[in-house]
Specification:
Elements: E1 7-10, E2 13-19, E3 25-27, E4 35-36, E5 46-51, E6 59-63, E7 66-70, E8 78-80, E9 88-93, E10 100-105, E11 109-114, H1 123-126, E12 132-135, E13 143-144, E14 152-156, E15 160-165, E16 168-172, E17 191-193, E18 201-204, E19 208-211
Antiparallel strand pairs: 1-2, 2-3, 3-4, 5-6, 6-7, 7-8, 9-10, 10-11, 11-12, 13-14, 14-15, 15-16, 17-18, 18-19
Length: 220
Amino acid sequence: GYYFGVIAIDPSDAKRLYIAGVPMLTSGDGGATWEGINADNVHVDHHSIWINPNKSSHIINGNDGGINISYDQGKTYIKCNNPAVGQFYTVNVDYADHYNVYGGLQDNGVWKGPHDYEAGDGWHQTGKYPYTSLMGGDGMQIEIDMRDNETVYTGYQFGHYSRISPDGRHYFHPKHELGERPLRWNWQTPIHLSHHNQDILYMGSNRFHRSMDQGETWET
């Protein structure tokens, strides 16, 4: 279980239970049976549950994506994203004239958007949010090829990275040799794209790795 796997009990019904964690669960019979109550607009990693003592169908769920409110015991939710908050592991920029900002977020993936975007709700009209998602998971370090400002190296936890370009996506994760001990990867695995030759990418586990061909092949 996770450290945030808390249990909440309905103040007006001792048999109605809720468990936070991954996923969020509820029981109406004192724990004999359980069902998930994760809606499409609710993030994972549930940390907190509040139950209205005067109206038990009204619950508030705090998770890695913010706050969600339900008035029907978790069947449907309202997402509350004002203010929008998040934790950035890393931030980088490209070298385009109208440059973009890239961010790797805790449990909210990797995002890219224009440097001059000012936060507002105007995009609700067009349905086109200026920042776009490059990858899910826990967003990690980001390197951008300055030659085209479109080829991006990024990934998620424990060294699972990809080269993302207009031509597609290439996944890479260096492996140990047969007979060697498995490599050990940090939660936030470091990468570095050479400033002198942008075909050369470095990556660190408990050992040091280098690719001379944009992540296609690796040597330790």
